[in-house]
Amino acid sequence: MSDFRIKNGVLVKYVGNGGDVVIPDSVTSIGDFAFEDCKSLTSISIPDSVTSIGKEAFSNCSSPTSISIPDSVTSIGEEAFSGCSRLTSISVPDSVTSIEAPAFTECENLQDFTCPSSFAKQLQTILPQTKTLIILHIPDISDISAKFRPGAAVGFAEDNRDCTDENGKAYVKYIKANAAKLAGLAIEHPALFYLMLREKLIFAKDLDAFTKAVQDSGNTELIAAVLDYANSSVSEKDKAKVQQKKETLDTNVTNFLFDAEQIEQISGKTFAVTGRLKTFANRNELQACLEACGATLTERLLRDVNYLITNTPDSGTAKNREAESLGISRITEAQFNEMVGRKV
Questions:
Q1: CA-CA distance, 230 to 197, in Å (whole number)?
Q2: DSSP string, 126-174
Q3: Does domain 1-132 sit in CATH 3.40.50.1110?
């Protein structure tokens, strides 16, 4: 008896014992729920005769770590890979023109995702919530939202992509403009770190952030590389300008007036911010203020973030919605100032 129930080219149901499964070449479509709850499935080989993967086709197949989708496939159904909890990487070929969201919900260990640029705007609904960054391999950064751009920058660097073509220039522009924010990520992913050094994307004003990140890592090779970069690629004039700005910032922070008892309440807390600030000159000043209070500022919204500072908490923006879904308290800048007893 065959392990596959096939009708008119559609794999209606897999009834085998799992393990390493090779789908027959006669299959042109993997039907809805075909492999649902097949927890004994360890790997799957999909032939290039297949053009579509149906709704929940592989849902709750919790053993495979990667699945290769052939470039004959043009559509992926809703929750096709939902609950594939050990799936760490997946590559969607250029042939795919339709992905019904959420195709990869509850794939909480997904670390690496490749797809055509046409799906960049759908990442929020396509990709699952994960505890770690998902590295993205997408040719064009222009339609990728701010939330996913750091992961795309890592993917760009790891792919050793051309920095001189149109898409490459767009990636380089983003990395250069956000160098300080990407410092910690660059240490975790050296391909991005060395790209930033090679293309001279680290300004003098960003050196402190990079130096701190490198020192915290304890990686002697990276420490030597960033010191060499500072000595050879940044002018003394630029360093002097940065130092002057730093001294001004330190003076501004020193002049902040806080209530000692109130700031004790936020010591050890983690904050994120979205939108334009009104009472701080910039985010660097806010970060310095938080550090003076014993708190930290992060760029990414994760479950360990305590507060999102937003002057438009009811605006329904993506970051506000994400904070709400994660149970993160949203406060306005005025509420933050009141919280720490800051006089403005």
A1: 10
A2: HSPP-SSPPEEE-S--TTS-TTTHHHHHHHHHHTT--SSSHHHHHHHHH
A3: no
Question: Which tokens sit at 77?
Answer: 């159904």
The DSSP H or E segment spanning 22 is strand 19-22
Q: Domain segments of the chain: what residues?
A: 1-132, 260-340
With a cut of 50, say whether residue 153 has pLDDT above it. Answer: yes
Sign of CA dihedral 142, 148, 150, 154: negative
Q: Is 170 exposed, middle or buried (0-12, 13-18, 19+ CB in 10 A)?
A: middle
pLDDT at 254: 44
End-to-end CA distance of the chain: 78
* The Cα angle at residue 230 between residues 188 and 248, in degrees rounded to 5: 95
- Asked if residues 24 and 46 have their Cβ atoms less than 8 Å apart, the reply is no
Least confident of 36-50, 108-122, 204-218: 204-218
Q: Under a CB-based contact definition with an 8 Å cutoff, are residues 133 and 108 in contact?
A: no
CATH of 260-340, one of 1.10.10.10, 3.30.70.120, 3.40.50.2000, 3.40.50.10190: 3.40.50.10190
